[in-house]
From TrEMBL:
Compositionally biased region (Low complexity): 353-372
Localisation per UniProt entry: Membrane
GO cellular component: membrane
Species assigned in the record: Batillaria attramentaria
Residue segments, region Disordered: 1-32, 351-372
Predominant location: membrane
Record's signal peptide: none
Residue ranges, compositional bias (Polar residues): 12-27
Name of the featured protein: G-protein coupled receptors family 1 profile domain-containing protein
Length: 372
């Protein structure tokens, strides 16, 4: 996700009363009318984040537990999936948790001190970018394996995948580390605590330059690459369906192909969920930057923008909370292993691999998602 705009003050129609920081406990005049869309946005911020945090925590922890207990015959997919679940947990706890303390418990966790201001913001944006690029790497690897199946061991070895995951973390978190320098806590008469924001020397870059860079590198570019990779994956699924329908195969071969097809379906579903849940916030960010100052005096339009911002943020966070359910929906192998985890049965299961003559391996039947 790109930089979060500060909510604009909403002046109620037909009145000089400004509705400010209702979630922080500041009161308005008793008879002051409140714009309905603004009230709706506050309710969304109050009730949705706790639910998403609970659901996302359960789902990502369960995903890590399922994949850690399985043997995958040398496949690197569990490495990506576990790293992705960890990145999603970081997004939820560095982004949603401060939102919960702000809107439910009436204090700004980031505004308490410069340390949480810097580190939580850095962690949220870095984790979101890491999640996006892990999904890109995983989907691209799968697209390469179906396009050049006899070179899958060379292109998608466990060692190379481990290096890829490491480089994604290092590069993405390194690109975002300027936030540790530029963010500070400002004294504010608007907030009960201080306000986490940019320093004077950093403000122009943070407000006018970095949002566009961040959106391009960690949302739009990954989305484009996911679309390209998914075209290859969808063509592979179509060819597989045709082969299954036109020719008979042995039970073992058919089982391995179905495992591979199931994993491809999972990746396609997770990728399109990423595109669906993250694209709206990009539109919202662009609208904020193009119209923010122009609509300050229009209470109704500002309230509608606040509502749109709340909805698109919740969708963006939901992207880090729903992958477990997508795995269960699209992968029978994942469902089976999750049930075995709950019942503590069959501690280790090995996924069948393709014969040595093909020099390739088939990952498990489920796989994952890439912000923020």
């Amino acid at each position: 996700m790109s930089q979060v705009p500060q909510p604009l003050d909403v002046t109620t129609p037909g009145s000089d009363v400004t509705v400010r920081n209702l979630s922080q406990g500041n009161e308005t005049e008793p008879d002051a009318p409140i714009v309905p869309e603004y009230t709706a946005s506050l309710q969304i911020w109050k009730y949705c984040p706790p639910v998403l945090l609970a659901v996302g925590t359960f789902g990502n922890v369960a995903t890590i537990a399922v994949y850690k207990r399985m043997k995958w015959g040398g496949s690197a997919q569990p490495l990506f999936l576990i790293a992705l679940a960890i990145a999603d947990l970081c997004v939820l706890y560095s982004g949603l948790l401060p939102d919960i303390t702000y809107h439910v418990f009436n204090f700004d966790l980031r505004g308490l001190h410069a340390f949480p201001c810097k580190t939580l913001t850095w962690m949220m944006y870095s984790s979101a970018g890491t999640s996006a690029w892990l999904l890109v790497a995983m989907t691209t690897q799968r697209a390469m394996s179906v396009t050049w199946p006899h070179r899958v061991t060379f292109h998608c070895s466990y060692r190379k995948s481990g290096i890829t995951v490491f480089l994604i973390f290092v590069v993405v978190w390194g690109c975002q580390c300027h936030q540790l320098y530029g963010l500070i806590v400002h004294d504010s008469d608007v907030y009960l605590d201080g306000a986490c924001g940019a320093s004077v020397n950093y403000e122009d870059f943070w407000d006018n330059v970095w949002p566009w860079v961040d959106m391009s590198l960690f949302s739009l570019l990954p989305s484009f690459m996911l679309l390209v990779s998914n075209v290859a994956l969808l063509r592979s699924l179509r060819r597989s369906a045709s082969r299954f329908a036109s020719c008979g195969t042995s039970t073992a071969t058919e089982g391995r192909k179905r495992v591979a097809s199931s994993m491809t379906v999972t990746l396609v579903i997770v990728s399109f969920t990423f595109l669906l849940f993250t694209f709206p916030i990009n539109v919202s960010i662009i609208l904020w930057h193009l119209t923010g100052e122009a609509i300050e005096d229009d209470a109704e339009l500002t309230a509608k923008m606040d509502l749109a911002w709340a909805v698109t943020n919740i969708l963006w966070y939901a992207n880090s909370a729903v992958n477990f359910f997508l795995y269960c929906l699209s992968g029978s192998k994942f469902r089976e292993d999750f049930l075995k985890l709950l019942t503590c049965s069959d501690a280790k299961q090995k996924v069948p691999t393709v014969s040595r003559s093909t020099n390739s391996r088939v990952p498990s039947s489920s796989a994952q998602q890439s912000s923020h």
